[in-house]
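User: Fold both of these, please.

Assistant: Here is the first one.
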Amino acid sequence: MATQQHPMVNGVDVDRLSETIETLRSQPDLARFQFRAHHRWLDGPHACTRIDDFSGAGREDVHTRTFLVESSEPHVLLGNDEAPSATEAVLHALSSCLSATFVYHAAAKGIEIDELEVDMEGDLDVRGFLGLSDEVRNGFEQIRATFHVKSDASDAQLRELVELAQRRSPVFDVVTHPVPVSVELERR
């Protein structure tokens, strides 16, 4: 008996994508996810975040392996350059999410993407972080993303996908709209 092949577009199983969308339309409670990260300071600005479990689709789940994501600072910012800085990690998260959103929506529309790269730049004045000026923002003043796409799709289709990536990317939403963040302290 031959196994049924699912159509793949851009590495996305479009049948599974359609099934997932239909399931979530009929059972919206399954769309609720909680992602988790456990962060441990190591030394100076060097730290490591462990990512292994989450809840979603109505159940607790674990990744197929534990992910460790390190952060540090470059020498010029008093780190030892062991890993990207947290602000660079934000650029990584944003470009990753924009890219995935672009690719998923392209697959759903049957648009094949041959190559996709996203260049990110974020402008930051560290005087805010260091408390040297209350007039300077602590975070990025501006972020720029440039999509480089190779595809047979029309310019209009690609522009639409870039717009969809911005409109539907969870991380783009997080960095462009205030998100309530609660912070607690527990003494050990």
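And the second sequence with its predicted structure:
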Amino acid sequence: MAEALPRLIHIPAERPQASVLQWLLHQLVSEQSSELPGTSLASSQLTQLMFVQILRVYLKIADFSANGLLRAVRDQRIAPALRLMHSDPGHPWHLEDLAKATAMSRTTFATYFRKVAGVGPLTYLTEWRMRLAEHALRKDQISVSELAQSLGYTSESAFSHAFKRVTGMAPRHYRISVEGQFKHN
């Protein structure tokens, strides 16, 4: 999702939400300058809240005439399908399941989804699964086989093939490269 965001998001001071962001920023600065127990956790939570608030404001004020992920997230016609994919990415979703959730025919849904999101619904699902896989490979000690199963793949081989097609490298190589980056930082 981060790649769908612009490099800079400007929130004008006159926006009603700006006061919430100012308060959060003040709290974050206060937290960082204190030496209280839990400073790291509190700072992390405040940072997450700031990100959510910035994203909410951006979704309200941005021009989403171009297709893409953020336009898709805001589109109420395909929102039910996105909620299904996001809530249960390991489910073996079929085009007809997702179309039914949106009360559209398969063809209408697929065409409309592609127009709004910039990719077809099943391509979107695959890319979403791979983003989840990247995160799990960076953060968790889950095996590639367990990860494949949790994301709806019937075999480690099928998952590895999809992962490499989307990311450019095999899951194990990805994990090794990420671990190598952390060792050098």
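DSSP finds ten helices and no strands in the chain.
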